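@channel anyone free to eyeball this complex?
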Amino acid sequence: MISTLETQAKRPPFSPEKLTEVQGVIKQFPEGKQKSAILSVLHTAEEEFGGWLSPETMEYVAGLLDIQSIEVYEVATFYTMFNLKPTGKFVFEVCRTGPCMLVGSDEIIDYIKTKLGISAVGETSADGMFTLKTAECLGACGYGPMLQCGKVYHEHLTPAKVDELMDQYRAKYSSSINQN
Amino acid sequence: MGRKLLLEHIDVSGIETYDVYRNHGGYKSVEKALKTMSSQEVVEEVQKSALRGRGGAGFPTGMKWSFLAKPEGVPRYLVCNADESEPGTFKDRFLMEKLPHLMVEGMITSSYALGANTAYIYIRGEYMFILDILEKAIAEAYAKGWLGKNILGSGYDLDLYVAPGGGAYICGEETALLESLEGKRGNPRMKPPFPAVKGLYGCPTVVNNVESLCAVVPIINIGADEYLKIGTEKSSGTKLISACGNVARPGVYEIELGMSVEDFIYGDEWCRGIANGKKLKALIPGGSSVPILPAHLITSTEAGERRYMSYESLADGGFASGSMLGSGGFIVFDEDQCIVRNTWNFARFYAHESCGQCSPCREGTSWMEKVLHRLETGKGNMRDIDLLAEINKKIEGNTICPLGDAAAWPVAAAIGHFREEFEWHVTHPNDAVTRNYGMLKTPSITL
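replying in thread with the prediction:
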């Protein structure tokens, strides 16, 4: 479970290094067009602040970009990649669209549900480790069934491979906790 | 063996790095263009090549470039559409992942042609791992003097950036993409004005697909005359096809336009037939937005002519008995697949991806999804099948962007070609519920 310390670390503001990175992104756009950086900054904010966009995070991003909070809300709610509520440590997004369905994505989704002991897509396993989501076409049609976790695409899935993945991510989490 | 223009060096180890790419003829198109051609000459060469936009619509790239307004003192932009999201399509990902420097080179040569000093690659957010690959390639290109100020001493300046999306199919529509790049919701704009006149930040802008911009590189290198020798009269050059679904060897293939569909599906060099020795039932040749073809219309047309992988041959027969080359997202269905289930799956996709701006699309796509789900799960009735056709008519042509049409047309084609399968779902509700599709098997061609 997340310690109080960990929770506090996962709130705005960005660290000085991240802030420099974000300011670099803002500079990629013409003066006065800093709003263009919003998607990039929201991705970074989500990554830095616990895997989801809290109202506090969105207001912080609005401040960074010198725009109204509503401009951030309307963008964050439009694009499907952003999580607007807390998730498990790792989010498995399984592609459910046609080409993946033809090669068994429905079966993989069912398998993950059973494995995590959850009854519906969108739920998180009881240990808080994994959230299952589905996604529309992720551009891996020839390599399905597949899922995305963070930046990584896991392709050619089978139940055995899903088991392996879950073990890998659990181990990854344990080692990150031990390092701290 | 077909000629390869984009993937010529794909098997060379390390081709994603600058040195290897450069040693295999990389960045020559930039040298040729900046040192020996005026920007107008580059535009004319691309026009002459008859390159058609590789994103799906097939609009001539050179013609699009020629529309770009050039008012004094106003910046112009080139934006690469790397928001590849059309179900069945994964070719741009392949290009950017394996050949990031080809992407960068295509951006430089094309930006020079258009007189753009700033260019953006708008890449779908899910491809964040490719964004990292591209940024690395861009940094290398800056370090070697291919980007930045006074490139090759020509006096031409260019800055190139990559911007991620956030997960929205609609941002593949060029005006929605520009809205998104401006940091807004991806709602398509009313046209006119077209981006060539008022695009990014209200400035003249060209938006081109990844593969189109990459194709500019070989066109400038070998010249339009040589490029025109490849392909057919109306479909010049090569095209990447991403084959998926129930083929034995899915993947991305570069083909010379005009090869036969039969060779592409069954040839050893390409898909190697249907997976698991099954029979071919149907094909969606150009991404989920194009009409599905039943087995008897895949390798030959209604008129009994051979069907080829080209814009004109795949469209032969119109929407009644033809389809479209589209994005090259080639989705193959074996004899065990249920067309109703697949049609519903794609309808769900469009309902999910409708931006919600136009009522006919927002309401219509969700309505179609509900009706198709009812049919798929054995709860529909015969009237539902005609209802779908009615909803279709109310969506198509009545929306700002083509997403509504893209959702409507495939449903019409599926019912047109496989009506008995939809009716079967009504008459066999129990089998539909248990997905016992065995008795549905339609006669398939044997080759």
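from a first look: The longest strand of chain A covers residues 90-95.
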